Amino acid sequence: MLCLLFSESLYASRGAYLTVFLQILRTEPEPSSLTGIRRMMDRHSLVIPQHRGSTVQCPSYIEPQNLTSVSEFFLMGLSDDPELQPLLFGLFLSMYLVTVLGNLLIILAVSSDSHLHTPMYFFLSNLSLADISFTSTTVPKMIMDIQTQSRVISYVGCLTQMSFFMLFGCLDSLLLAVMAYDRFVAICHPLHYLIIMNPRLCGLLVLASFLISLLVSQMHNSVVLQLTYFKDVEISHFFCDPSQLLNLACSDTFINNIVMYFVGAISGFLPISGIFFSYYKIVSSILRVPSTGGRYKAFSTCGSHLSVVCLFYGTGLGVYLSSAVSLSPRKDAVASVVYTVVTPMLNPFIYSLRNRDIKRAMWRLFSKTI
């Protein structure tokens, strides 16, 4: 008798669940695809787990308790071709070693030679240190991924990489603006150069650049930490690119855009404006020099810095414009190699080949070690 009652209650409960499910189907439009089923599940507070290769649509409403959390991302890299992996490994390993060794030589040459203990070379050594750190945030991870054939990066690791990428990228930009101001003072106010660019002011300028970069990095992190739901876990890049991560997020983009515009103004617009203003004053001052030899000598002190500025901002602007035109994220990743890897690698060559003081300091450093 008990078994009979139990079976009747079981069939009754099944009928009740079936009735509820049929009512849900009647109130919802018939899903014509997997996306429609997922949307229907979203409306009824069902959580969709995310796995590699799964692309889901953002829910029609944002309720944090109904959203999944992402524990890891997959960096798609530059190429999926197995035959290209050894070539990419050797290429980026060699470029990274050249970048680190070249910038370390600049730092050692400036610190070991008392003739180079001037504001210009003080800023140059800090720029070299920032270049080493900037490259080290992305390239070692990519080299390790190629070697281990694993492209997984944890959520915390992705945020950490993105934070340091923003920090040292912004620091590079601000130091270039500080170096432009140094050249402006040296050419337009040569008699007061050592008074204006005293060691205290130089240290404060570097410290202010670092603190502003840290603020920018943390502001960007605060935006990303609010993102709890993503359309995909595959990032079509070789590192956690901030713009691509924001594009994958399901959230209100209005506040994110405001913060990103503010971050872009601090890390891009203000340094570029300072550089343009400094070189406008420099060119105006040089044009007032009567002799051609005097003009060339005055402008030659800015040649290396101007080359680095054009290389850094030119490649960055090129990547931004190409990403706006191109619909392929993989092509954007290839283009971003220029300003993330190539530019820091070329900076020591630009300053050493165009600067006699650096050449002499390096020869003295080599002679001491040998």
TrEMBL record:
Is Transmembrane helix found in the keyword set? yes
Give me the segments passing through the membrane: 87-109, 121-140, 152-181, 201-220, 258-280, 301-321, 333-353
G-protein coupled receptors family 1 profile domain ranges (all copies): 102-351
Which GO cellular component terms, listed alphabetically, does the Swiss-Prot or TrEMBL entry include?
plasma membrane
Entry keyword annotation includes Cell membrane: yes
Protein location: Cell membrane; Membrane
The organism's superkingdom is given as Eukaryota
Q: How does it sit in the membrane?
A: Multi-pass membrane protein
Listed A to Z, the keywords are: Cell membrane, G-protein coupled receptor, Membrane, Olfaction, Receptor, Sensory transduction, Transducer, Transmembrane, Transmembrane helix
What's the family? Belongs to the G-protein coupled receptor 1 family.
Task: Spell out the protein name for this chain.
Answer: Olfactory receptor
UniProt organism field: Vulpes vulpes
